[in-house]
Amino acid sequence: MNRDRELDAGARAHFEDPAYYAQSYATRKDDVAYYVRIAKKHDRVLEYGIGNGRIALPIARGGAAVVGIDQSRAMLADLRARLKRQPAELQARITTRTGDMRRVRLGKRFPLVICPFNTALHLYSREHVEQWLARVHEHMEPRGELVLDISMPILEDLADEPGTSYSMRPFVHPTAGLVGYREIFDYDRVRQILFVSMCFEPKTRGTKPFMVPLAHRQYFPREFEALLHYNGFDATAVHGDFEGGPLTQTSDTMVWHARRRKK
Ligand SMILES: C[S@@+](CC[C@H](N)C(=O)[O-])C[C@H]1O[C@@H](n2cnc3c(N)ncnc32)[C@H](O)[C@@H]1O
């Protein structure tokens, strides 16, 4: 596969099955509570990578209006289906735009811009980050805040031999039924991109095995701070969890807060 197609697939395939996405992350709640807490202080929020509304729906329930950008039609369709089951005033608080986070221009500014759960890891190069941060800059009020979380590179995983495979327990997939599951890791040390092949082996006779690719850029903490800095932002805090704790040697998440740098 050519390199651009490989990255495009790694940014899209996992989000073509919202039912599996929802099942996989149903117990991930700390990040939701964190973003809801921050959004409570604001009336309007822009979410990059809104997906099927795992975070946007609880934010909207808290009272803020959310505008969400996402390139996945499947995730946005699922969000619309979920919204239909909500009261009218909540439906009115969420609007979406289909498109690439590096390109969409809304012509509006927000006091809070969020980019939760590794969405920024789909920005694979310096140019991608620069394009996106230029959009964030345009969409943020002068005293607004950007909050995002990305996973911390785990050196042991990145040091694996290419093709190292991890088998997990079989589970019931929402569409494929009972499946065996393993992940194959392949880290490109030059581009700093972790390619994960999610391999599903259905136990139902006649159902074929299938593989879903996922590609995550690995941003090291000081590298990400520099990217914010050289694109007009000051990192005001970085936490290692969703309780506001410090980033430490054992943190597996980075929660960045940034503001536009005053000229
Ligand atoms: C891990 S999901 C996060 C969804 C939601 N925020 C959540 O926390 O559940 C990442 C989302 O980013 C979207 N995405 C990835 N690359 C994108 C891009 N370049 N432009 C717009 N959306 C993108 C995907 O379609 C997906 O819905």
Write the layout of secondary structure elements.
Layout: H1 3-12, H2 18-24, H3 30-39, E1 44-48, H4 56-61, E2 65-70, H5 73-84, H6 88-91, E3 94-98, E4 110-115, H7 126-139, E5 140-151, H8 155-158, E6 164-173, E7 177-188, E8 193-202, E9 210-217, H9 221-229, E10 233-239, E11 253-260
Parallel strand pairs: 1-2, 1-4, 2-3, 4-5
Antiparallel strand pairs: 5-11, 6-7, 7-8, 8-9, 10-11
The structure holds S-adenosylmethionine.
The site of S-adenosylmethionine has 19 residues, from strand 2.
Commentary on this structure:
With 263 residues, this protein is an alpha/beta fold. The chain folds into 2 domains: 3-151 and 219-260, Rossmann fold (3-Layer(aba) Sandwich), CATH 3.40.50; 155-217, N-terminal domain of TfIIb (Single Sheet). It is 29% helix and 34% strand. It has 9 helices and 11 strands. The protein has a 7-stranded mixed β-sheet, sandwiched between helices. A 4-stranded antiparallel β-sheet has the order 6-7-8-9. The radius of gyration is 19 Å and the shape is globular. The N and C termini lie far apart (44 Å). The mean pLDDT is 96. Bound molecules: S-adenosylmethionine (SAM). S-adenosylmethionine is lined by residues 11, 15, 49-51, 54-55, 69-72, 75, 100-101, 116-119, 122.
